[in-house]
Amino acid sequence: MAFVSFCTCAPAVLVVPESQKWVATRNVNKQTTHDMPSESQTFVSSTKEKEPKNINKKANPTFLVLFKRKFILRRLLALVLAWTSSSFSVYAISYNTDHLGDNRYVSASLAAISEIVGDILLFLISRKIGYRYSYTLLTTFAGALIFTTLFVKNSNAALGLALAICGKILVSASYSLVYVSTADLVPTPVRNQVYGIVTFVSRMSLLSMPFFLYLGEKVYELITYFVMTFMLIAAGLLYLILPETKGEKQPNSLYDAKQQERNRLNTQCKFGGSNENIEVPSLP
């Protein structure tokens, strides 16, 4: 089945046109800018106008910029923890669904529906308060509900199942949020690299998740719930250091990503070097 799907979809790659804006920004072919439509030429000219003269335009961002620029590294670390905590908690609750209620079929059905409810909840609250505060609220309340489930499920199975499902709704919403916000926090030249790093680290953390579940079942049940709660709350608090991206376009360059720092508490931005300081105005 996979082979048939590959043979059917692979030829479509040959007829998909290259993005004109990507070609223009990467300077793949200097002659292509003359043959571009007016929209792409407008994009190129507007990009050149908004970039300051003191930025080194010859240097193309590479993978090493993730570790050379402090503001990019700060965002990368926060996103790694966010992806790890959300994915770990989502799959831990999903694998532990059989132990949440008396009827495993009802528990599994509610756990599946909770992911749809989580996406709807995310859509509603993110439009009101933005991504940054939404993620912090979702993970903080999710950690509190998950930790409370441990002390309730043995005495009242129905209430324990309700708390666990509510926690999974919030965790599912936070997991969907990091997918969207990651693209808004990193510039286009290194966006694929950042997605690769955060997904790799989060998937590697999932390898240890069954062992934590087994450890909680055989040694002490508090361990699993404590790990999920601690990771969720820590990720939610660390996410507050990131700039708010609600209503802003995705950054196409390092300069665009640095401009987002005006949404943080500090207003002094630095690219590095003595001639690359940029003053970013604070919000009114």
Instruction: Tell me the β content.
Output: under 5%
**Count of alpha/pi helices:** 10
- Element string (H = helix, E = strand): HHHHHHHHHHEE
In this structure, how is the largest beta sheet organized? 2 strands, antiparallel
CATH classification, class level of the domain at 65-262: Mainly Alpha
Number of strands: 2
The CATH superfamily of the domain at 65-262 appears as MFS general substrate transporter like domains
Question: Which second-level CATH architecture of the domain at 65-262 applies?
Answer: Up-down Bundle
Q: How would you sum up the global shape?
A: elongated
Terminal Cα span: 57 Å
The CATH topology of the domain at 65-262 corresponds to: Growth Hormone, Chain: A
- Mean pLDDT across all amino acids: 75
Strand order within the widest sheet?
1-2
Low-confidence stretches: 1-6, 28-40, 42-58, 267-284
Instruction: Please tell me how large the radius of gyration is.
Output: 23 Å
Return the structural class.
mainly alpha
Helical content, roughly? 55-70%
Brief rundown of the structure:
With 284 residues, the chain is mostly helical.
Structural summary, described in words:
By secondary structure, this protein is an all-alpha fold. The protein has a domain at 65-262: MFS general substrate transporter like domains (Growth Hormone, Chain: A, Up-down Bundle). 66% of the residues lie in helices and 2% in strands. It has helices at 2-9, 20-26, 38-50, 65-68, 70-95, 104-152, 157-185, 191-218, 222-238, 254-259; strands at residues 268-270, 277-279. A two-stranded antiparallel sheet has the order 1-2. α5 runs antiparallel to α9 and α6 (104-152) crosses α7 (157-185). The longest helix is centred in the middle third of the chain and has 49 residues, at 104-152.
